[in-house]
Amino acid sequence: MKIKVQSFDAKAKAADIELNDEVFGLDPRADILHRVVTWQLEKRRETARGTRERADVARTGKKFGRQKGGGTARHGDRRAPVFIGGGKAHGARVRDFNPSLNKKIRALGLKMALSSHAKAGSLIVMDSLSVADSKTKTLLGSLEVLKFGKKTLVIDGDAVENSFALAAGNLHTVNVLPAQGANVYDILKSDTLVLTRAAVEKLEARFNG
Known about the structure:
This protein has seven helices and six strands; from the N terminus they run ββαααβαβαβαβα. The protein is α/β, with parallel strands linked by helices and 209 residues long. It has a six-stranded mixed β-sheet. The mean pLDDT is 88.
């Protein structure tokens, strides 16, 4: 699959880049994408810290008073929640929100997420992300020319270009990630996916390695 390489420099000569069909040319499957997104969101959840309930409190279980005739309630032991130091009634419990998912399915889901933008025509490949003077105003003008979508995800190589990261810091509609952080949820959530040449090389090497 060939795609035109864009640039912030209007005078730069347009070139084409060949995208690997095994990464950017797959037919997306809703079931695979759903499984990966569900797994990813479940991994983000944090569980509550477990509390000590009646069975977890280290206190005597001996009945400390008579059943009748004492003039008080008929308690069984000091671990009851009504006593100071007793167990918590219906306390928070540790839950496992970290389901497992096969690595092949996770890799396939990421390929399909990338392919979905390529097939929809919402994939843009940039030669470089360098922004003059790191100015947000300069970047906004370039985004209008290149017709970025309302929600844009920009993925660079090992690290995001510093001038672009500074210029995009004030834009809530632009999200930036290094290639290592590329994930299915953020890719699908964006209207436009922007990759640099370095990002394309990193992603293709990630799957071929």
